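Standup notes
- DV: blocked on the single-chain target, sequence here:
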Amino acid sequence: MGKLLVGGVSLLTRFVVHSLFLLLLALSLIFLMEDSFYQNWFGFLAISSIPALVIINAVWQFNYPNRLARIHNQPWRGMGFTLLAIALGLIVAFLSMQWIGLNIAPPTPFLMMFIILSVVAVMWQLLVFEGWPFHGLSNPVKGWAMLCASYVLAYLLYQLFFDFSLLPSIPESWLAITPQGLFKPWTAIVYSITTLGVIFAFQLVDFKPFANLKSKQSRYAKQPLYGLLFGSTVLLLSLLIFWLATQYFQIDPVVFMVKAPVSFLFGLFLMMDTTGNQVFLSIRQPWRGLLLIALSMILGALMCLGYEWVMYGVLAHIVSGAPTYSAELWLANAMLSMTFPLILIYCHFFKFWPIQRLPAVSPAQEMR
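- DV (later): unblocked, structure below
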């Protein structure tokens, strides 16, 4: 991979060393927690911080707040921005617990799905609509606007598309406080996560063929037309993938979520962030992107199997499948609630501290 094609093995070394460090750190943190806390509270709190992590990295680009931006030495710089993201996430967790979860503890499935939607919303704003309609704002204001808009969009999607009365064995007390939208909750949330997988697959091919619109200065290259065109394609491809998996091949939606989009995203983030997005640079697009998609799928599947092996080795009592999906949710938490934020924090916030002194490659590119 990467430098193996351009001479030397430093990129492979970088990937192996940083990946092993992240995986061992993630598993260590998971098993330091009490299992009920990990299963019930950790995912909720961690996912609440992801939109802030994304905004700090991709929009503010560590140049705001000014006091933190003036810190240049690691680990203090990474620690300051990480604590900021955690603080914002805790505020979001508290407010959403009050307004969406109505103080029902531990966090309910409907609260968790709302929080997951906020991550979907921020990624759509960033990668599909490219920050529209906040382009004219300064980066600090734009970041705050996008962060707030993520939760507004998540709430609208939550109300419109999720019908929790369709869940089996839902407590009667929940029916009065949950939306009665268009689809079964697991269908809606798995489909939304599938759209993220499709968006990031397009990113691996440099958003071709839609990027060609910008090179030709087409009127469709401007937002929001570009976002509507690209977003519609994402929705249709995601629908096809979701239908094939859950209807044609009759895969349980939650099992599909963990084994397909979640594993793919996990493999993609682990490979691209630890290597600074330099894998297969000598290969032209779209072939480079297609190879990266295939490699991300394979790597994600292997990592999922590894996490699954560890999970069953330590938690022999854990149960797979409906109605609780305990094993599937443990794996999803391990890959995207624990390891994804760690990848983002370690590679971008801490710039690979404390083991950054490896064969030289350019720093990881910020998320687009």
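- Follow-up: Residues 287-314 form the longest helix (28 residues).
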